[in-house]
Every structure is written in C-alpha cells, then in structure tokens.
What does this fold into?
Amino acid sequence: MFKQRREAAQKVAESLFAVEDAIDIALARAAEFSASFVTARADAGLSALVGQDAFETSAAAFAALARARKDMIETHKHLSETKIQIGMRTVSVGDIAPKPPVGDLGDEKRHIRAVA
It folds into this structure.
C-alpha cells in the first residue's frame, strides 16, 4: 500500500512541477511581449495612446498568470500537508530545492553566514 501511495504522490508531484514550470515560462514570455510592445511603440515614434488598449489587456493577462503562479504555490503547500496526512512525511517526491519556512516570506530576514 505504501508503494502505491508513493507512486501516486510521484505522479502528482511531476504534474505539479510541470504546471509550475509552464506558468513560469508563460510569465517570462508575457513579460518579453509587453517589453517588446512598449519598445516597438517608442522605436516607431508613436504616441503612448497608440495601442494602449492592447497593452492594458496584455498587462491583465500577465496579472492573471501571476495570480495563477501564486495559486499553484498555495496548491504546492497544501499538497505538502496532504503528504503528511497520508503518512509520507519523510518521503521526497522530487523537490529540487529546499522550501523556505512556512509563513509570510516577505517579512523574513535572511542573513549571510560564513561556513567552513
């Protein structure tokens, strides 16, 4: 039974990581698009009014992607809790970097220490 839970958790983790990567790629592409849009308008010597509606909808799409990223991060946290609930506390299912402590990451202070 543990093997089945571990295999199921691995499938979910792989799918989660794929979604997280896809959103990050989409965010990068959307940012590149917005930058090219602004630069092209300036290079062409056009008024800031030209294409403003398109720029605003592009910005809204970027914001939606940013929200999707936040939601997937929350999903990741919930799945970490679920892993504990099903008795897999010590099982790693593919995380490649350690997670920061739970809490408001914006208020954390990190210090650099010398280590030998």
Q: What stands out?
A: The helical segments are 2-43, 52-85. The chain has a mean pLDDT of 84. The chain has two helices and no strands. The two ends are 43 Å apart (CA to CA).
